[in-house]
From TrEMBL, chains A, B:
Pfam families noted in UniProt: Amidohydro_3
Amidohydrolase domain location: 44-391
Lineage: Bacteria, Pseudomonadati, Pseudomonadota, Alphaproteobacteria, Hyphomicrobiales
Keyword field: Hydrolase, Metal-binding
Molecular-function GO terms, alphabetical: deaminase activity; hydrolase activity, acting on carbon-nitrogen (but not peptide) bonds, in cyclic amidines; metal ion binding
InterPro entries: Amidohydro_3, Metal-dep_hydrolase_composite, Metal_Hydrolase, Metallo-hydrolase_Enzymes
The protein, known as: Amidohydrolase family protein
Superkingdom of origin organism: Bacteria
Length: 402, 402
């Protein structure tokens, strides 16, 4: 297992924090120490070349265990229903030989090359593969410690109550090292919203873990599930620990109901994760943020049996957030990036995240004229720094994927 | 003015037409002559390196005259309404000095680099700039003849009936060389749907030109305008000559009404142009194509005062068509590309378009494992060929923009 030092000392000259005035940044012991001034004697120094400095991108929702990156192209001929995709995937895992350790390593290093310094990955737990996905991503998490932080959500992709034995596997996944309790469509998939959420929140309470639930249910059905989630969050004092992923129901047409849901989310400090889908109703990012709700973003699946598009680029995801929410003004484009950085960081409760002195030196250098220009242009990342060490340069991770 | 020969002879070895079996293609006199076989004696020969061969991408809706490419970054602080954007743009043209000839040349060559061999550009005609936009894009059209085909739509961006003198300018634009009669939101902008469409179709009839109308009007209002357009198309025998751009109303919730509109469009052979917007209701591409309606796609504005995102990449636009329409299967991804190639070509009535022997040799070579993989990966275009001559290589146009 490759060992990488987790702290670094570094001086980067000529950078523009968030597109502002040029300065330099000094990193000591893996933390941002100071802005401005010449390179201290003896410190490794690189030239930022006037690039824009932002904190590490936060990939707050993906599926590292089942990407097909680096494997033969998968010809997608899957049916249109959610259940078609779930069942096809379970079959293909075996047929194609999708090895979770290898595949998660490939995607993790791609994310590093693209500037993500933190990843929350949902990892399948089911009665067919058992804990193989969890074990594989745990291996990747340890292997690349110091390169990228990976948080694992135990995710019952095939349903939990409808497949006997899954709850026990979920519990084992948490004991093994998964940090977050996942869930999935309490009504549409598991057919028992109360039962499903009682198990999810029961595990969360017993093990003292956060919760992140996939909620594809639309309109009134999704809103009902969301209210059940909010009720449990408050009852258990889990404010700030619960995320609803996708939350398509927040794009429903009944605007009074949406306003009520947003108020409830803000009050219970339940977070929203969006992939900014073009084809589905989607959470209104600006309204949520204005109401004080934390909103993060993620790539979701990256080139897997569900679909071919994902590419792990969180700068492109910021563009998708912008396009989906009709963000055109520069301040709106900056908000889209904020969702893909600080939003995800707050959702994941990352400590010491940001550009301020004292923060962990998780940094990305973007070439661009202004912050908005750099976002929409999505050029190769000039440098990616993880706790003060350069981990990618000119769009390439310094470590090679298996 | 630079002169470029408009026909070429060329042999490209080792290419895979539409991702199929490897072969070679021979071009004679600017036309596809044959597939297979070794390079004929004396012919310029290039190695396709196993790349995927597709016909030239068709940028079927953009605004060459007002892109800000190559100019200082424009900080967008514009208000949210359509009219805010229209009025701001008219002011900025003067303030920023957006020169139509220079700017259209820059975008045209960017399009060439990205594999577009044909462009339909709407060009503003209004009482402030008069015909300056038309003259500028006409200059670019002539300058790059043989590199890229540009079709000009006289476009009353600021309204036609609400601004006295615009109709006369529209007519002058057609006399000057604009090929298509444009229109814009007959109710929402021009406040007189009958009056607006009578003028648009009147000009089309008098000058024997096709029509392409921007229709942002949503739901029932847009559907009403669309029916007025269809009625005039049939009354004037203009089947196959009329395009409705954007057509957000086809994404309305009333599915019976949508079905009726699709039937009417198919019967009158009225085409639909989509940009596959993520934030608006949008035409359902597959339903339209299945009903026999021609659907093309375009970038719309490329980095202009309306918004920062457009980048003229029609391969990315195919991805957006896919994402917007939830196309996940390989055959669906191929359909998205078909919209960005053959769809636009049929919409613009391009003669001799395609890969068959006898077609014009407008070709793009994409690196990729399969057609779908090449589309979603959006790598630099290996070669772009216009009537048999290489005009771009490895993502760079061979001519430099001003």
């Amino acid at each position: 297992m490759r060992q990488v030092a987790t702290t670094g000392d570094l001086h980067i000259g000529n950078v523009r924090p968030m597109g502002g005035a040029a300065t330099s940044v000094t990193v000591r012991g893996g933390l941002v120490a100071a802005f401005g001034g010449a390179a201290p004697e003896g410190l490794e120094t690189v030239d930022g070349g006037g690039a824009i400095l932002i904190p590490g991108l936060v990939e707050a929702h993906t599926h590292l265990d089942k990407t097909l990156i680096g494997m033969d192209w998968y010809r997608n001929e899957v049916g249109p229903r959610l259940i078609d995709k779930i069942e096809n995937e379970r079959a293909q895992k075996r047929l194609l030989g999708i090895e979770p350790a290898r595949q998660s390593a490939r995607q993790a290093l791609l994310s590093v090359a693209l500037g993500s310094t933190h990843i929350r990955s949902h990892v399948d737990v089911d009665t067919e593969i058992g804990l193989a996905g969890i074990e594989g991503v745990l291996e990747t998490r340890e292997r690349y410690r110091g390169i990228v932080d990976i948080e694992i959500v135990a995710f019952p992709q095939s349903g939990m109550l409808i497949r006997q034995g899954t709850v026990e596997l979920m519990e084992q996944a948490l004991k093994l090292g998964a940090q977050v309790v996942g869930g999935l469509d309490p009504s549409a998939i598991d057919r028992d919203p109360k039962g499903h959420l009682d198990v999810v929140f029961g595990l969360a309470e017993r093990y003292g873990r956060p919760v992140d639930i996939h909620l594809h249910e639309t309109a009134e059905l999704g809103a009902f599930s969301m209210e059940l989630i909010i009720e449990r969050t408050k009852a258990l004092g889990m404010q700030g620990k619960v995320t609803v992923s996708h939350a398509f129901c927040l794009g429903m047409t009944d605007q009074d109901y949406v306003a009520s849901l947003i108020d409830q989310l803000a009050e219970a400090r339940v977070h929203i994760l969006t992939t900014a889908p073009a084809f589905k109703s989607a959470p209104p990012v600006k309204r949520l943020v204005d109401a004080g709700v934390v909103v993060g973003a993620g790539s979701d699946g990256v080139r897997d049996t569900w679909g071919p598009y994902g590419n792990a680029d969180m700068l492109e995801r910021a563009v998708f957030v912008g396009l989906r929410n009709n963000f055109r003004r520069d301040d709106e484009v900056a908000l889209a990036l904020d969702v893909c950085t600080h939003g995800g960081a707050r959702m994941m409760e990352l400590e010491g995240y940001g550009l301020e002195p004292g923060c962990k030196a998780d940094l990305v250098l973007l070439e661009g004229e202004t912050l908005a220009e750099a976002i929409v242009s999505r050029r190769k990342r000039k440098f990616v720094v993880k706790t003060g060490r350069i981990v990618a340069r000119d769009g390439e991770a310094l470590l090679k994927a298996p």
